[in-house]
Every structure is written in C-alpha cells, then in structure tokens.
Amino acid sequence: MRNDVDRRCKLLLDLDAKKTILRKIPHALYICGVAEGENVNGFTASWVTQASFEPPLVVNCVKTDSGSNAMIKASGVFSLSFLDAGQKDMAQKFFKPQRRVGNKFEDVEFYLGETGCPIIKDSLGYVECRVVGSVEKGDHTVFVGEVISAGVHRDGNILELSQTGWNYGG
Asked: What percent of the chain clears pLDDT 70, i.e. is strictly above it?
C-alpha cells in the first residue's frame, strides 16, 4: 500500500513548482567553522534553524560529500558566525569547496573558539555547538548541535539568501 502512495506522489510532483516554492523558504547566511586538529575550514551555510530552547539546540544541514561534513563527524563540533546584511562578499568567499580555493581564512580575521572552530571577528556574533545527533538522508547530513558557547560582536541585520540573488535549494 505504501509503495502505491509513493508512486502516485512521484507522478503528481511538479518539479518546477517544487523548486519555486521551496526556494521561498527564508534562509539567513552564516559561516560554519569546522576544525579537525590543526586544520580549520569554513563554508557558507544557509540551512540552519533553532530547534530547542532547553537545551539550546540548532540544526545545521551540511552536504554529505563535503570535507567539512567529514570534519564535523570527526570532531563533533562546529561554529556558526552570523553574517551582517552587508557581508555578501564574505558569504561568496566561503561558498566554494576548500579543495578548489585553498585556505579561505587566509585574509579573514578570525579566532578559535572554545571548540577550536574558527569564528569570524567581523560578524554579528556566533554560536559554538557540540553535535548531539545527526541524520543522514538525501544529499545532506542534518547535524543537531547543542549550543555550548555564544557571543555578540555587534548589532546589525542578518544577511539573507534572498538579498544575494543566489539560489540554494529547491
């Protein structure tokens, strides 16, 4: 019975409508910092949300085949630096894979947080998380992170994906 329902749903799915409507889900942009030993990396993250007040949990979805995904699995930690609305260039810098562009932190001021993950100095603020759960489905891993450290650097409005003219998702 379940297979019949699955088949009917697939036949009814309008791929253009799916892409259009899923791209309307609002997403802020962050730089996710990761570390494994002395090696640090960062990437632009947009599939992030708060999931619990107590304990404070965030969900961070990371491409399964990325080096950063492997680093989070190995270390069990990550950071999120919240980008200001005027930091599209910063988001762009961290959008490409490290294997193609090299050290993304080369000309970015950052410091290592309590987890050893990089935190961008010129961001609105940050959270650092310890992974307390994960789900691997599709092409992303859903990491559930407990917030173990947080800080505010300055006030401002967060950069949203819709402000950049880019599309990620759908």
From this structure: 89
Q: How far apart are the first and last CA of the chain?
A: 28
CB atoms within 10 A of CB 56: 15
- 75-100 confidence digits (pLDDT tens): 999 999 999 999 999 999 998 766 65
DSSP conformational letter for 13: -
Q: What is the pLDDT of residues 138-149, one digit of tens each?
A: 999 999 999 999
Domains of the chain: 27-163 (2.30.110.10)
| Rounded-to-integer distance, Cα 31 and Cα 19, Å | 24
d(CA 157, CA 137): 32
Angstrom distance (rounded) from CA 98 to CA 101: 5
Compute φ and ψ for 2, nearest 5 degrees: -60, -40
Whether the CB-CB separation of 50 and 57 falls below 8 Å is answered with yes
Strands 30-36 and 125-137, sheet pairing: unpaired
pTM: 0.88
